[in-house]
Amino acid sequence: MRKSSGSFRARLFCGGASFGLLLAIGGTAHAQAQTPPPPAEDSIVEAVVVTGFRNSLAQALNVKRTSAAAVDAIYAEDMAKFPDLNLSESIQRIPGVAISRDAGEGRQISVRGLGAQFTRVRINGMEALSTSGGTDASGGTNRGRSFDFNVFASDLFNRITVQKTASAETEEGSLGATVDLRTARPFDKRGFNFAVSGKEGYNDLADKYNPRAAALISNTWRDDTLGALFSIAYSKRELLDEGTSTVRWQTGTAAAPGFRSVRGVTCATNAAACAEANAAVHPRIPRFDWYKNKQERLGATGSLQWAPSDKTLFTFDMLYADFKGQRNEDFLETFTPQTAGACTASSPASCGINQVDVVDYTIATPRTGFPVMTKGTFNNIDLKTEQRHDELETEFKQFTLDGEHQLTDRFKIHGVLGYSKSEFKNPVQNTVQWDQYNVQGYSYDYSRGDDYPTITYGTGDTANADAWTLAEIRMVQGFVDNSYKTAQLDGAYDWNDNLKIKGGLAYKAYETDSVALARSNGTTANVNPVTLAALRNIPRSSYAQTIDFSSLSLPAGNVSSWITPDLNAAITALHMNDPSYNSAVTTTPGTVWRSPFATTCFTAGCGMYNLGVEPSLGSNYTVNEWDTTGYLQGDFNFSAWGVPVRGDLGFRYVQTRQKSLGYGVVPSTVNGVNYQTISASTATRSYNDFLPALNLVIEPTEDVLIRFGAAKVMSRPNLGSLTPGVNISTGSTKTVSSGNPFLDPYRAKTYDLAFEWYFQPQALLSAAFFYKDISTFVQSYTSALSTFDKNPFGLPDSAAVAACGTTPGCSPDLPVWQFSTSINTPGGPLKGIELNYQQPFTFLPAPFDKFGFLGNITRVTSEVTYLTSTGAVAAKGQLTNLSKTSYNATLYYEDSKFSSRVSAAYRSKYLTQIPGRNGSDVEGTKATMNIDASATYNWTKNLAFTFEAVNLTNEIQDQYYDSSQLVSFYHETGREFFVGFRYTF
């Protein structure tokens, strides 16, 4: 049984540290065995050149020490040699940074408790945004402002800087931090340079090998006044992502009208006998999941630098990334416990929970007033097996031209022109579902809590393809384009030796286009259920495959394999590649649809696999932003009563203009005819912000710094929150949602106080205290389940009838509808502390003087007010995506021949939804501890061999429902090991 526990993590961390220590001592012994005789006395020089990992730490520490703002940095050990496999996993070593993962890799970051949407990312000096697509549990397609770091190979970058306090010269848009990513340039290391590396990886869960390779070449000419650089990185990865999920829990009565009978008593005639079972929450979609991921990541950078004089420098940078993926998601499940609708004689076989007889059950009460059906046996459950296939690609391009010129001895100008574009494509997302109806003796057991359940399928036949019936075919496409155009001009004037005046103007044009397509007959109705006999009669065995689930240590009683659709074969068997198949004209009795889109469904007819935007109107939008900014800042440096004082003081003024376009359905009735008109809505607005900022550094002694920062900051609302139009979705959850294009941005006042002690070379002990008073917050509010007439948008029931079509359990009079919108709320305070310690152990006797340690811990708390759509207080609690505690620790060893390190990254649990859905108080993700190790042996000056171990604990991705922490998503991805080489010249 696979179970993560604190003691196990502690033992493994100690074991990993011991492993690194043994490797280090072994490397030391080897080095000592080959130690040359002492040099002649006249050959000894005092200069000590620090290289490798220690050198990267020293450079980062120097940046932190000399900066006026609160800054942390990571430097590459050498050109094209970043110290981690993944870019976001590099960033997580910075104090206050925590990452969230998808498919076993870091995807997004949070800084000081503020989620990814509050962090701005700049690449080579200009803001950029890259988005990708993940599993539904990890956020699905990124249609917001959060930066997906997994698009990029870490080999493409040689420096990461995280600025945690604002300054006037740093562009606005962040509540948490501004992250600067810097690619390599030829003047970084002049002359001819060449580096190449290769690695072969192995994943122990997937039993697959995964190659990686990178190369860099650069040179400078004409007395180092002209330089060129090119780098490339490639990786291929195949893994399994396996586990269980429930897609939340809910009560029996939430899927009205609830169970048919309980322990032999019919609920319609004796409601009291069924009350306990119906009042308890049960898993909505209890299932086992098997994800198979294939990924390819290609990246390239190019850089040209020209210094026509010692006063002028031009730099042109290019960055390209292409991140491709294929993912199969296979499920063995039941939808019956979450499907509403009273069963009748004419109901379909899969009419929902009202067909279910509860044979027996067990109730637990993890918190007062919250009963949970942890175990149950049921009759008349409908089983479901499905496969979903996604093809995904993110292509990123960026070009920047940077120029600086020293006009006089005191006056310098600097300009940036840039363009970036991120194009995410999900051109294929096909799903085929089979059902098996009215299974007797189905049971589940979730009583073990944080572990895999036991699910048995009674009379169901999970191994025979033709025991199943074709039930649903889903076909979806999604596209998200983000682009930035930037122009910036700055000037700096040295007023005197103690004061520098800076100022500048900038213009930024940002555009995002989101497109989502689904099977459509020209209306918003769900047309995925298959009723065509010609398709249902095709033998399922002609497009079937078996999923092997034996790699997981499941409790006794679970199946180790099951039959599922094979989409590769289904495309041909079910005619899915023929958009004209079964063409027909759309007719809706009593209803006339009007659409602005080019559809022939109402006239000439369209095939059953026709794709259109109509069923996914809420994900089709365009948002444009034009930001015009100016700033003025003074950098000062003086002595007060013999104490050095430096810093910066200034303000930034920004005007934001927004234009958003979205779609909705406008219902109307004329002469008894119900018209459903799909229409576009456009909204424009603008707002201004005045953002003062102060950074102050006092040096009471040579090695002690006291920092203080204060600023007003702002962050623009998430993109999906800004779209106009009301949209109805009738999938497994029936939702009515609307954006709010007139939202105010997030606004806050921030304060930072830090004490830093540089007590020896390359060493630091520091404490930082921070406080953010968030005065304007943006909250997405989702109502409790109710009937459609309770919607706050004024929609008539006819809109629900038109959207439901023939979907079972979908009717305006059923309490299955959730309403959501975005509103501004008062926010609340956020406060925390960061402790940071790093030190090389040069004071110890050999061989321990080659060891070193760096570690940090961050504690954050917040209290944000969450409102209902009417303005009443719904809850007060933590910010979503905020982990109260996070820490990172690395023990390393390095000498001229050998280096090794073991690292641990911990993130405590965090909330993802407040209030939670389906009657819960919250939803969240449990704590994680990731442990990695690496070792390098320098065979010669130019050739090194490497070993790396990633995710040694095989950490579980564990999402929960309610504060009682019922399992929602519980997956593992395995450990990865890499062996490789690196050659430099």
Automatic annotation (TrEMBL):
Its main location: membrane. Belongs to the TonB-dependent receptor family. The keyword Signal applies. Residues 1-31 form the signal peptide. SUPFAM superfamilies: Porins (SSF56935). The keyword Kinase does not apply. This is TonB-dependent receptor. Residues 64-177 form the TonB-dependent receptor plug domain. Pfam families: Plug, TonB_dep_Rec_b-barrel. InterPro entries: Beta-barrel_TonB (IPR000531), Beta-barrel_TonB_sf (IPR036942), Plug_dom (IPR012910), Plug_dom_sf (IPR037066), TonB_rcpt_bac (IPR010104), TonB_rcpt_CS (IPR010917). It comes from the Bacteria. Residues 435-952 form the TonB-dependent receptor-like beta-barrel domain. It comes from Caulobacter rhizosphaerae.
